[in-house]
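Posting this for the archive.
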Amino acid sequence: MSHLTDVTVLISRFFPVRATSIALCVVALAAAFGFNLSAVALELFSKPVTTVMVVPYAAGGPTDALARIIAEPFGSALGRTIVIENVTGAAGSIATARTHDATPDGTRIIIGNWGTHVINGAVKNLPYDLLSDFEPIGLIANNPHVIVSMPGVPARDLKELIAWVKENQSKITAANSGVGSPTHISGLQFQRMTGTEFPFVAYRGSGPAVQDLMAGQIDLYFDQLSNSEAAIKNGMIKAYAIASKTRSAAMPDIPTVDEAGLPGFYISVWHGLWAPKGTSSEIVSKLNAALVQALADPGVRQRLAEIGQEIVPVDQQTPASLAAYQKAEIEKWWPIIKGANITIQ
């Protein structure tokens, strides 16, 4: 029984009281039935009680905010602690590569979006395949873009803004949060649909871009609503239209692009969860069930609505729906993005 005593001491040191009781029962049963106690101990300690959710952007951005809102209820439903890990650089491809290389056991997943799991494949030579090298867990929410300008732009609505851009396109500048970023692609699509051309200024993130927009250092921005919402509400920047078929519940006074005069300009940064390729269907199923439960939590729904995140319907929260949606988005956007000849330094 000396081995059992050693294992008991180890468990009591590293496991909380409740987990300790369960673990000791497992060890005692193993001893009673003659199983190798060292193997039992190894199995217990090889299973971390945490799952790392990789966020491919800096803390404070919309993806980080979304991750932190769902982390606690998601972990509670999963029976694990969710640890947020911000891995920045290369428009999210560094974080995605790190998740791709992780052990497929449910201990490391990534919250990605339209940028990391669609756009990057069109503008970068990636060391992984976006569709075949990850296991989709589920769609989370959509965050529509909003067309905004600095306060001094004279246009009162979107039609006047488009006319003003056409008259001043050689003089104005638009911000983006990095070459090849969703905000860049959104701006390029605006140019394509309005027949305009103006230079972009690339920022290291949406935060600095919005600050310069408020200060009048930049003229236009095509941003996620959750980023610009506070500045719009405080009158620090001007909003012209939501790039969606429906108005946002967070800011219902802003018209849609269809209502405002640019029909079909639909841009939304949707988010989902993925696991490394090879993660078992059983683990993916457990992760998906926990995600669905978290997104049904009234507190989560309210907090996401407050920042302009629109939770997808429950029938679209499945792994299969995420896989199909991502594939459709790649088929839609890659020809447009590649046709723009974007060069990543």
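The beta strands are 50-55, 81-86, 108-113, 134-149, 174-176, 200-202, 220-224, 238-242, 268-276, 310-311. Residues 144-260 form a domain with the D-Maltodextrin-Binding Protein; domain 2 fold (CATH 3.40.190.10).
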